[in-house]
Batch of 4 targets.
Target 1
Amino acid sequence: MEFIYYFGDVFTPINFGLLLLGTIGGLILGATPGLSPTMAVALLIPFTFQLEAAQGLILLGAAYTSTVAGGAVSAILLKIPGAPANIATTLDGHTMALKGEGAKALQLSFLSSAVGGVFGVLLLIFLTPVLAKWALAFGPSHLFWLAILGVTVIGSLDSNSVVKGLLSGCIGLWLATIGFDDIMGAQRFIFHPSLGGGINIIAALIGLFAIPQVITMFAKGRKDDGAEAIQVQKHPIKGAITELLRNKRAMGIGTLTGSIIGLIPGVGGQIAGLVAYDQSKKFSPDRDKFGTGHPEGLIAAESANNAMVGPSLVPLLTLSIPGSPTAAVLLGGLLIHGIFPGTDLFDNHPDVAWTFINSMLIGQILMCIFGLYVAGMAAKVAQVPQSMMAAIVLGLAVFGSYSVQSSMGDVYVMASLGVMMYFLERFGFSAAPLVLGLILGPIAESNFIQGSMIASATDGMAPYFLTGTLNLFLIAVVIASILYSGYMELRSRRYTSKEEIME
Amino acid sequence: MSTLTLPRLQHIIGSGIVAAVGVSVCYISYTQQPSEAFLFPRLIASVFVVLALWTFVKACLGWTKVGNGISFTQFKNLAPGLAIALIYIFWAAKGLGFYTATTIAFFILLSLYDPAPHTALKSWGKRIITTACFMAVMYGLFALLLKVYTPREIFF
């Protein structure tokens, strides 16, 4: 119950102001098609440098929560999901809007997001300290395997191809080794003076998530997006609450599915929303109405994608393994303040950890309250032409990456990685495992070196890294995640024609 | 072996470049000294090169999903924007000054990709106002609020 002691910290004027700013800004950013939550959080990181660690995390956490919820606005009113997590929301949400129930759909979406989100954060509050204590038993070999696990799980689950996902992870791990070696001071892979200090994580995050999006917008050319927002009629909030209570089953399924999926590292909100929608449809007596503007589908999808947010931070805050790409960016936000997840966070910085977690709980309620009011404005922002969005994001990316260390080298690294990632994405590679490799690389390397020193003084490398219950368990999970994803990939190909594979 | 379509050819070239990087990283890791500093890179590079070569061979044999690739129309659309973005980042920002370069790049990109007709005077006014507003926000955020000192060079 330690979290209760730090509740007051959320309500200091600066902290609460940042929470409000992050929530309202996140709702608007989330509604903008093309601005994913991951990219929004990555672009916000440079603004947190001058803030204290807890304040920075409050801003990033609020933006994370509300961009996911804000994505529902454009999904409902424009049929364009603001974020991948809102794909399932369009199925019934937009149809409701077409039937003249746009306001009701928005109200149901924010209410169910808040219910799911609060449940998810409560899971985060109660599971995190238990797992963090468990993490105390981890030595260098276990931490090394955990870092590898983080990369392989996201590499195999977040990618269409297991091999390409793992290859992206390897590229990230290699990029993390660029610069001067910590122990010997030797130069490693410094091909250009800009790389002398290694690759700055924040510049890399901005480049990997923002620049491919900018180029994708360029690739669409001078096309008029033509998205026209459906005008919404007023709808009493009481009616939406009654409707929500009437659909308890869908809300329960969505909340539970989202929470469980959030706990699995690497599985994002997109999957949570779709799985919850599917499960809710299976258990509903009105399954034929799904897809025709049925509130159950909307409630299940929205409660799931927000219920995923809290649990996705559990593996991050305890074991340094982000549960989603956005959580990986948040890890970058923690590391720039010199804070390492796990026991260090809860033993040495409990104020930072609990103020951040508590702010996410309050943020869910604020998101619900403001979501209903900001929805109209957000729908207007969602109609901003892609050309303007591309130019704005490019400008923010350049200024943001420069401001990290006032170095043009970081801007060059950001642009190079971003352009490279765009082309890699076109061939089925994914940014998430690469980012994980880049973030977890130093953790993996330092524990590998420490472990090899211990090993050389004891039984040798193989017994130290490859024996012991915990080592074997972690290795088994690494192998199982790869095999499972490989099996799923093969199975999906069995149902795909040879021509489609070749395409 | 399947027919050589444009996405497949692009995939072969892309995976070939990744494989070449993998081989170079592996070579450097195993040849550079002191070897202790390259212990971890060697471990990574070994896995990297195996996966990269595997992907390349699969791409050559046509045994893999190749992704969407880039069509000629997409390339035609993105090429001017990408060229302007790269000139802005790698030369203009440092050569002309951050704010001047950003203003020019923002205005050109906006004008290039704006769906509004280029013949309408009103749309040009809109673009100029949008650029001015954006630059005012950027100056307020970075110069005044975050106090980031940006390269000034020839202009500002």
Target 2
Amino acid sequence: MATNWNRREFLKKTSAATLAAMAAGAPVTSLLTSCNSKTKATADSVILLWMAGGMAHTDTFDPKRYTPFTPGMDANSVLSTFKPVPTILDGISFSEGLESIGKIMDKGTLIRSYVAADMGFILHSRHQYHWHTCYKPPQSVAAPHLGAWIAKELGPKNPVIPAFIDIGQRLTLGEGEELKAFHSAGFLGNEFGPFMIPDPTAGLESVQPPDGMSYKRFERRNQLYKELVNQSPIGEYGSDYQKESLKRSMEQAYILLNSPEAKAFDLTKEPKENYDKYNTGKFGLGCLMAKRLVEQGARFISVTTEYEPFKGWDTHENGNTRLADMKKQIDGPVAQLIKDLDRTGHLDRTMVILASEFSRDMMVEGRPDLKVQEQVQQPDVINELKNYGMHRHFTDGGSILMFGGGIKKGQVYGKTADERPCKTIEKPIVIDQIHQTIYHSLGIAEDAHYVIEKRPFYTTQDGLGKAEMELFS
Amino acid sequence: MKYSSQMEKHFKRLILKKKVFVLTLIFVFIVNPLLIINSFAGDAPLAASGDVPLSSSSNSFWLWNFLGRLHPLAVHFPLTLLIVVAILELATIKRFHSKLRPAINLLLVGGVFSAIISVVFGLLLARNGDYGKDVLGFHQWTSIGAVVLGATSLFLLFNVVKKNKSNLIKPYRALILVVGIAISVTGHLGASLTHGTDYISSSLPWSNDYEATPATNFDFAAFKDDSVKLNKKEELELNMQVKSILAHNCYKCHGPEKIKGELRLDSKKMIFKGGEDGPVIVAGDPIKSDLFRRISLPANHKDVMPSKGKKLSEGDIAIIKFWIQKGAPYPEGTDKETNYRVAKLEPRNPPLPPATGNMHNPVDLWVNEYFKKNKISWPAAVDDKTYLKRVYLDILGLIPSPEDIGNFIKDPRPDKRAVWVRQLLNRNDDYAMNWLTFWNDALRNDYTGTGYITGGRFDISNWLYQSLKSNKPYTSFVKELISPEKESRGFIEGIKWRGVINASQRTEMQAAQNVSQVFFGLNLKCASCHNSFISDWKLEDAYGFANIFADSSLEINRCDKPSGKYTNAKLLWKELGTVNSAAKAAIKQKQLAELMVQPADGRLYRTIVNRIWAQLMGRGIVEPVDLMDNEPWSQDLLDWLAFNFEQNKSDLKELIYLITTSQTYQLPSVGFKEPNQLFAKDYKFKGMLKRRMSAEQFSDAVSSIVAPMFPDSVVSFIPFVEKPVEKAIPAKPVNNKPEVKLTAAQKEIADKLAAEKRKAAKKLAQERTEAGRLIAYQLFTNKSILLYPRASLVMNNSFLTALGRPNRETVSTYRESQANLLQALELTNGQRFNAVLKRGAENWRNKYRQGDVLIKEIYRKALGRDPQQKEFAVAKQMLGPTAKSEGIQDLFWAILLLPEFQIIN
């Protein structure tokens, strides 16, 4: 290579430099007082598979009595709109369409008792904000995303790969502004914010030289830039920290864009056979990218089915037919992701979580004992297929899958009732516990916090969240 | 005499031997280090290619480091010896050849040699140590001077003693006295470097720094040594930290609401009284103190505290331990006393120091006082080019064009800086578009954001823009926000999300918090959930203030739990007056608005002048700008500015004029190694900070040099041209008559008319569209025509976010100036930026056919100067032989990313 950049050398230095930069922070964030100790970690990376829009547990991972569609049926009698299909675990069935995931459940834990927050009249983005930050909006302090906390506490695992990567969510759709409010590092500062890849098929574009620029030209541009910097009477310009951060970040960007790791973003480099296994659309390819990135040392990746009001899992009508589609999107890729990570040994140190902001039910909006304003017309007698499905927002039960990074294998945790209301009846688990469980696996202390505007701001509300140790093996 | 002649011989021998030695020493140790110093002085930090030096000392030879560190040890020999020589010469002033002569001679030889060695060590140390440049420079040169003088005096003495040139006695003695003084001075400077300039003076009770150097932000947890004695301030700080730990971890069960084990930890009396098992604290003995024992138990122990919830962190436990070791100090006076610094509310107009010499600007007079007190000298003002870039960016948010720079430099008027600032301030639209960003951040106003989708938020852009454009007096500005009309209601109404929200975030409480933060530099956020642990503000105060924005009193919630209690609507300071608690919100807000802006409310005016100061100088007189109870670096300056701002019709532009035309503003900018130095307790003002262009300033600069950064389609707010007037199309006459048959001729005329009408309508539609398109950027002010949309008017996007534009969900009063990877990626391969560079490159290629001309033009437009020869060569290489647009694009990129371009010097 015609470059005098020594990448290996750089990597060695960056890890130290990154630490130094984190200690220094920016003017605002440098005021943060770190109070954080580390514990022993069982995971180094996290993949969050986000089922955006409210995934009904009774039609996915916690099927109940199945009632096929017949015009004139009583809505109240419908608990599940798909057949249950046995999984590899004894006595545990998943809803039809999730057979592949059912076959890998011996590699992880199925949680059937997630209880979402009660925040009144449902707004998806508020619940999503809460799920990802552990804080209910609005907040007087900008709360950081789970991924931002991890990026701040642990930094990148491989210095050239951004610590927090978000795949599949466009922020230009409905409720985009609300999504932006938590797709953010909040008070921790932009440095720890998400590296957004809205479209995984175009992922490479985010990490290669700009459109229409050859690597050769990119190289040359950078070389001459450095020479101009050297020639410019720069000594006089800027504080050391400004100059240093400017220089360091430009070098890092250059190295990322020119690094072999960047190829991880290039899905066309995946063998066709494997590519096809993942290719169920944007989400599936996002899983493929997550796999490739974890193999190269990514820290936190979120892959989403993408939230857009009334799309995806946000089924206000045609719940049954639409869920069949959604399952097709996720079943193969999720199972393949776990299998691939397991085969390469990465699953041991990578925690994979599949979750949604809340669940759905045909009849109950909110909680059975605390119903909220209804948003979906549900006739008591179902005549049309479009009314056959879980259309109301249900917060009192839900399913989460967790794999790897020390999570117990083949476990089922918690239980929901078999009759309506299908709410959590055993081992309820809330978001603070889920977050702390993730942090625990990464070695981030339960009381990790920063003091912002003189207020101690914890990873979970007031630092009270507890990791659920039963989830670990 | 015989004895003395023997001594003379001895002395002679000694000197002869040493002569060779001295020469060797001089060569090895003085000349050589000077060369070393030269070599690193020329080595600008960024010039080092490729690798990042983490620490300058890490790669130097160990022996130099070792010898350097001997400097503080070695200096005491020459210091003492030479001063003693001077004293002895004074003591024997009447008789040169006294009994002491041989001793003096020996002392001087020893003194000079050890001084030389010390200087050498010192130079080695200076290479590696992180010392302040100013003091270090003084110390270095006075030391070298003293040594040279010392050596000269030794030479004179040698001549006196050896060659009996008694006429040299007087010069020698005069010189040795000078050496004595010089060595004392340099010794003091050296001590200042090691211990800080106020090391001695700050321990004096009458010193100005005595109060100003408390050890707040003290890391007590790190204190292993309990022999340390704390001063009063430190005790206060320690106690505050302890109280904060107790509050966050213990009050829940041992506070006013629950009193488990009959123990309360929320007041001094209760803490020391203890619980059902007796006292929990034995002052001075942590091991015997039950409180310490129980918090340090392992998590599963039955006695561990807190029994529920998480264990205290190591650091917290260490602080409690240290506190008990120190005798558990709990300074608490009468009710009125406080542990927190509270700034005075009332205005103060300190008498202005008399104008001296060419110094007239009140800002300078106060800074001059401050400089005198802190022994800081006035450096020369910055040159015209630097000054012009500053005022352009600070007032208009734009960079000056090469023509502006040329005209300014050529302008012969002695008061041209003031004249130009006045002209810039008169460019009302440009000014408004720049300051819009500052206020949008502070008032959390944005064109997009949460809440808008459900009608839970209102945009105040138009009101804000017009207020800035018309330079609305700050009093009216505040009043219209507090007691709003429809157009300005967004700030008080806050952001409302659908659903149930935390009591401390209801919109009335948001209003209370945001008004306190923005207008009073006061953090009410803690107190809106529970009594604050960081100030004296109580939950009730927060609710009292929030009630002003509520139609009926809000139920007080403590940590989101209803308490059944209510309080009256009241201001945070009763001195400011009262509102009618029973009235509707609109009336109370109107009363509040009037009370807030009254001259007696010094806090309001101090807060705003401090904000403007911080915006112009990079750091406030008080920092953080949102905590106005903190100590200013100059109380007089802050008070004077606030008082006179209020007196001067609270005219923001006049305030900006006053500051930007001061010599203080024209001081060279100051850089820092670490950002946290800006907030350090011992911060001394020496001039504005080196700042980085904001996201908006950078974008606008790119727009003006290369090509518009933002298309019209992302412009959210079009403030300045009146909405295109609807050209009235004559209303269709009501036609009740039955349709008449037209003749062919009539029909032809009618068709023609109709066609004309259609044509007119089409033309109008086209004009409208065009106007709509042009409106966005064709702004005619009295000075400029902008041909691109300003960044402050566009909706937030990934480019602006990466460069630091906040999402305006909360009040935001700082921008980060540090670069990071996400930002660098956006600049390196971001689509928007690269597309703009590409487009600009094509335009430039068509405009400037010759590469040489083009390079010069880029340098002039972006950096306001011609390229140096070497730069020109590199740029030429980048462009390639034919100056294709690819080359131009790459050159743009390289220049715009130069720190020289991005940093406001």
Target 3
Amino acid sequence: MTEPQILLEGFLQALAAGLLVGAIYGLMCVGLAMIFGIMRVINFAQGDFMMLGMYVAFFILVGLGVNNLFGATIGPYVAILLAAPVLLLFGYLIHRLLISRVTGARTAGLEGEGHYAQLILTLGIALVLQNGSQVLFGSQLVSIRTPLSSAAWEIGPFWGDFVSVFINKGRGLAALFSVLAILGLWLVITRSRLGRSLRAAADNPEASTYMGIDVDRAYRTAFAIGTCITALAGGLLATNYPFHPFVGLEFVIIMYAGVVLGGMGSILGAFWGGMTIGLVQQLSTLVLPTQLQNTAIFVCFLLIVILRPQGFFGRVVERT
Amino acid sequence: MSKMTRRSFTQSIALSLPAFAGLGRTAAAQTPQKVQIGLLVPLSGIYARPGTVMRMGAEMGIADVNAGGGIKSLGGAQLELVVLDCGDTTEKAKNAAQRMVAEYPNLVAASGSYLSSFTLAVTEVTERASLPLLTLSYSDLITERGFRHVFQTSATAGAQAEMALPTILRLAETASGRRPRTVAIITDNTAASIASTKAMKERLLAQHGLEMVVDETFTPPLADATPLVQRLRARRPDLFFFLPTVISDAKLMLEKMAEFNLRIPTISFGIAIAEPDVLNTVNPRLLNGVMSAVANWGTKGQEELIERLRRTHGEPWMTQNAISTYGDIWILQGALEKAGRADRQGVSEALRTLDGGPARYFPGGEIRFDEKGRRVGAGLTIIQWQNGVPVTVFPDNLALARPAWPTT
């Protein structure tokens, strides 16, 4: 290969990797956007909800025999889809039993609208989930194994016999599921009665109560959906990325950065925020040393926060 | 019977107290106190697994020493393991070390702390507390700082690279009929990996006539290995030196190489690529042929120990983490026997002057430390994934299988 061919292939490959990684980050960020961006609940346990999603999908796949029933290629995706409602219920219960005590009407008179209490509570939940998972599942690294994670679609060559782009099949499918999940959620939020009640409860809880909307229930539902979406992202990620009880810590900062980049309160903004992080992470390796990948993300984050504090899609844009 | 007055009763008690005190001393001499040894390893976070295996090795060592009669020069005193979690960052490791020296003043020595980065931080604390610490970590820096209470049982990273490179080149030449000319180095930025590659980049590659065509350093854990493997695809080196310390990075790299149809002989340093957990996440087919230079591994002559580890802890093979920590306990047993007293200064002095003869649980060399605290003559093992198991293939006298050069 000549130098221009190497440069072109490197760029195309990094772009493809950025889009695939970014799609998963985007889905994670959307889950957090439901909870943090819309409900303004600071949830430090979001990464650990993702970790639970990974483990639940893993145990459904291996423990319930989904792998034997559907095979190693389709089985993992069936297990991930089955794990989603489990985490939906988990999120619903966590909100009902714990989070509801530091959110909503109860916190109206509290300093910082209950954010301090939320911070402490969700950090506590995170610690319990991490250490409880280590006790229950052990410290061994596991992954949802699929032959697709080491197979690729080769597109090209574009320049003579060279310059091809490899699209990892596992990551490609995960990105496709992510986009479908976000489109589905967007339709629910914008077109359904449930979505309208969620948006109303988030915009103006008091007025929503006057309109007959059960605000607490709306918050609970949003929390459950946010948990479920992030868990789904975790399951999809686990087809390529090994996990352990502390894996959530590696992603929770990315989730917050994505939500803030996209614009607080915007579902689609959160997705694009996550996508931007994926693209910056992968494309930065073309011009910077690879070990500065994550530094590049936060330099980009700071620049966007300085130049456009409301993020890509401000709350106003989303709601009008 | 005369009636005992209050005064005579008090006098009797006062007179008998020394006798009771003497009795107490006799009882203490008959039942030797326990001697506490610390184990400071990661038991939470992404390095919890290797830390857990180190704990297994230490517990086996403690059990064997105690079953053999304990420390005879201390009246058969039994060893007691004090385990502390050093977490997954250098800050946590340093805090755990501070907690260890503050909360366990009776510790006579310790072993730890897996990653060189952790050991560098931990030894800053243990050195100030004069607590002798044995380590399996590789970084040359650990024993370059003039510390008196740090003892490195592994060959340093630089020394390992120096020993491994000619062996690997000879193997390649013999098996493929062609001497490799170009190499790629992709390493994470942990201390041991950096130390291993530093020696190669500065001297060894040039000495052996090798040209480095890819030189990449990444921060673990990787999110995706595409940009790194793309570099390999563009330059197609004859040899690929890959130095991860996190298993997930090994998985991402090997799977991405398979995805890009790259078959380059891959040589690692350290155990991340040969941990049993790797099989939970990577297809054994992708691992077959991958080699790693490791400071220690289960070798010929340790079959009984390997089998016992498998039976009692379910570990499929003996990694460096288990065997080196097991060996540490025996080194400390020797030092305690020599010191004849259970205090830090005594054990540290004994370790500095120890001459335990040829090493039994470490490859090559002796149970003796030089003025820097490095084990004299420390060698290394080269392991290779063969049929789903990483087996020792070098040195010949310790090998459990013959090496096979991966086909390109």
Target 4
Amino acid sequence: MTIVKLTTTDGQPVEYRDEIIGQGGMKDVYFSPDRSYVVAFFRDQLDFQGKERLKSIVGAYRDGIYSQKGGDYWRDLFCWPTGIVEKDGRFGVVAPVYRPHFFFSHGSVSNDMLGIKGKEKEGKWFASASNRAKFLASEEKGTWLSHLQICLMISRAVRRLHAAGLAHSDLSYKNVLVDPSTGKACIIDIDGLVVPGKFPPDVVGTPDFIAPEVIATQHLSKTDPSRKLPSALTDRHALAVLIYMYLFYRHPLRGGKVHDPDATKDEELSMGAKALFVEHPTDASNRVRPDHLGKFQLPWGDPARIPYTIAGPLLAELFRKAFVDGLHSPQDRPTPSEWENALVRTMDLIQPCSAKCEMGWYVFDNTTAPRCPCCGTPYQGALPVLNLYSSRHAGAYQADNHRVMVWDGQSLFPWHVNRKVFPNEHLTPDQRKRVGYFQRHQGEWFLVNEGMPQMHDVIAKLDVPVGGNVKLTDGAQVLLSREDGGRLIHVQLVNG
Amino acid sequence: MRRLPVYLVLDVSGSMHGEKIEAVRNGMQMLVSTLRTDPYALETAYLSVIVFDDTARQVVPLTELMAFQPPHVEAGSTTSLGDALRVTKECIEREVRKTTTDSKGDWKPLVFLMTDGQPTDDWQKGLTEFRKIKPGMVIACAAGHDVDTSILKQITEVVVSLDTADSSTISAFFKWVSASISTSSKKIDLAKSESTQISELPPPPPQITLV
């Protein structure tokens, strides 16, 4: 096999084996001899703007994200090109290879009957109720918790792009790799990023994820002022669709309503001008018709059986903002940072399913008799619910609108101990370590202190030293830290 | 969910005997195993096979990917292209679900037509019948030099040719067909707009020439 040797525009040596290993929509991809990176050549000529765009993505924008404090955090969340090469007039980019967990290790059921072992974990496999139910090996499917983690990773990555003044413009399950078995996600195909006002988009996006206003105006000329093109606001729509699909395995706009006898026109209307949330609270005209679903699409394919509200109050509010208020009103769509916040807090609201069903975890709904929405198993026993308060002024504690539903083995982290700590790329290594955990012992619940030197039982007026523990009873109050922003937890015992 | 119906319309006339018919059999096998690794195709694509020699007949009705078994095809006698068009039209009318006011139907079907010789029947009569339906895209493949591509051009704008009809080119054609179905089912699952232009298909490999 011939090895081709090149030098990137900034003088780095690059080698690749002269054999195409993959073809994307725009590029042909080659492996380096040691398979540690790939070289991807654009099939079509790049115009001046295209070259300038590549230069700034590989140069200034990359440096802006990676060279800042905490920059290394992004290596796992983006597959960001590191260099530009040119050969025989064709341009290409050098990019890291995908991490091994983004390739199927088991693949499909029945000893991988489909032969997908070793192939990329394209998001579509996991965002479809029937593909999950019919084909994927159980080792590949992850749990609902790992899907929350995937959504968090994607939200965080998009938040970072937007903060840098970039728009992805083509977010879809095609260019976000996901691994439900570890809860990881990575944004790929970075070379098409849009810099508003400087580099316009060259694709309208991947359908299923294109914002309604973009579809509704796609017949207009590119220069028509009414024409809507991909931007950070359309990224917000795509992000909401991705999150909805990864949590419910169905599309938020694909319901039963027929707009036109012609399939193409019907599609354009139902994704564009006439787009309507299948779970719209008052307009029921686009509800999913359960009689149109196959048995493998159930229960997830039917929103009447698993409504979006199972994701808990924080996420439900954002889905309403995205698909009711903001569907045709881009400014009203939730930002990536709102999703990030809601996802982090929702992870404190979940409980393991006692039947260990496929979903595995669910948001505990303490307004009615709680049960797993997937398999129906009721929650049993007493569940401590912690309401979090934090100090604003000396001695005054205010509710943080943050609750923690306790489960056996759950950990407390520094972001639970202090309001001012938020789990993101800025955490120091120390802040990533747990500082306590919860344990059920003979029907009683305990909080074990592993790293909170100021922990204090307020009712008993006793300090709880590191290594000690406190029993969680109804009405108990435990101070976790005396520092500014330090948390006080108020315990409620709920009987399942 | 809308299905994407795919019709393979294959010439099994006497001239296909031997290596060529063997390549067609292998091609169908490869096509289905490739599509089974595509999560979009698995959800949407349905396959049917129609063969023609002195008559045309549907040997596999429209079938979902996981249940599809490549048929055993044998090379026969003449080349009834017109009859093939008529049978294809009838199958599409019968099998492809139409949209009603109450229920979404299927996507417009994709038709791949492969032939290696001159039609021996009244192909124009079959074409008149075929024109009564509106498939999404019809791709005609002239396998080898014995085909009059001007006839195929009257059936569809999208005509490709294989310089030599042997196992490697026929295999390349089926590979391209599977890439085209993946693209269209992606597009459809994604864009839900049918491909009607060659520019929406993946670039054909070097053995395949656009006519």
